[in-house]
Amino acid sequence: MSIYQHFREEEHPFIDHILSIKDIVLKTYRYHLTDFLDPREQQMVLMVIGENSTDLKVHFSGGANNAERKRAIIAPYYDTIEEGLFNLRLLQANYASKFMTIEHRDVMGAFMSLGVTRQKLGDIYVADGNMQIITDNDIAPFIIANLIKIKKANIQLREQQMNEVIERKEDWRESEHYVSSLRLDGVITEIYHLSRKVSAMHISRGNVKVNFKTVSDAKFTVYEGDLISVRGLGRSKVIYIHEGLTRKGRTRMTAGMLK
């Protein structure tokens, strides 16, 4: 049975990458540190390496207890993994929130304009005049020197100790849903209580993201662990897809909605 059958076709290159890392760690007996991974990629790493592997183990860290984006260390099972090996750096800046509104997407846009890839950036926190970015320690000096303006606000990033990270408080409201299939349009219809027509409209207009990537195909298959966002309607996640079908041929799914 091929491992690829459990993943979308567009995920196969990432699976190849993790399989390559797995092979290298097994041959060299040395741990490997990945870039920042979104929740779906973290799940794929566990599926490829195996949560009950007797040869390798996987550790994750994103700098905060509730971090969404995390780096993974794939290591021989006998290795001791310390937090410092994740090579994380916390950067912080303040801005005059009374005169300027800065959102997550503004920070992301400014960061990407530096030519640094998304994989080098962990979680972003923006609220009440405070901004925190978790990034790769090796590129932190470059970011500090070059990320000096967001929208019209001049900022000055400074390095902070990791224990000063602002912990995000998330409240996910879980609910059970029954879907005829795991197509994206059907899933968001159930989770967000929309009509199928409205769901299709959101998808076609580019309002829907799955795992932080815009999806414009209504037939896109949703997997367990996927994070979904619909512009203006909030974020949700597929927590668990139950095995088997109901007597009416429907799939039972546990989903969470961020309150």
What is the percent of helical residues?
Answer: 10-25%
Tell me the fraction of residues in β-strands, as a range: 25-35%
Largest sheet: 6 strands, antiparallel
Structural class: alpha+beta
Q: CATH superfamily assignment of the largest domain?
A: RNA-binding S4 domain
Distance between the ends = 40 Å
From the spread of the alpha carbons, the general shape counts as: globular
**SS elements, strand count:** 15
How many separate structural domains? Answer: 3
Helical run tally: 6
> What name is given to the CATH topology of the largest domain?
Structural Genomics Hypothetical 15.5 Kd Protein In mrcA-pckA Intergenic Region, Chain A
Mean pLDDT across all amino acids: 92
Please tell me the CATH architecture of the largest domain by its name: Roll
What is the string of helix and strand elements?
Answer: HEHEEEHEEHEEEEHHEEEEE
| CATH class label of the largest domain | Alpha Beta
Overall radius of gyration: 20 Å
Low-pLDDT residue intervals, each spanning 5 or more residues: none
Structure description:
The structure is a single chain. With 259 residues, the protein is of the alpha+beta class. The chain folds into three domains: 3-86, Ribosomal Protein S8, Chain: A, domain 1; 88-164, 2-Layer Sandwich (Alpha-Beta Plaits), CATH 3.30.70; 172-258, RNA-binding S4 domain (Structural Genomics Hypothetical 15.5 Kd Protein In mrcA-pckA Intergenic Region, Chain A, Roll), CATH 3.10.290.10. It is built from six helices and 15 strands. The protein has helices at 12-28, 39-49, 104-112, 140-146, 184-191, 196-204, and strands at 32-37, 56-61, 70-76, 88-94, 121-127, 130-136, 149-150, 153-154, 158-160, 172-179, 208-210, 213-214, 227-230, 234-241, 251-258. It has a six-stranded antiparallel β-sheet. A hairpin with a 2-residue loop joins strand 5 and strand 6 (130-136). Helix 1 (12-28) packs across helix 2 (39-49) and helix 5 (184-191) crosses helix 6. The longest helix is centred in the first third of the chain and has 17 residues, at 12-28. The protein is globular, with a radius of gyration of 20 Å. The model has no long low-confidence stretch (mean pLDDT 92).
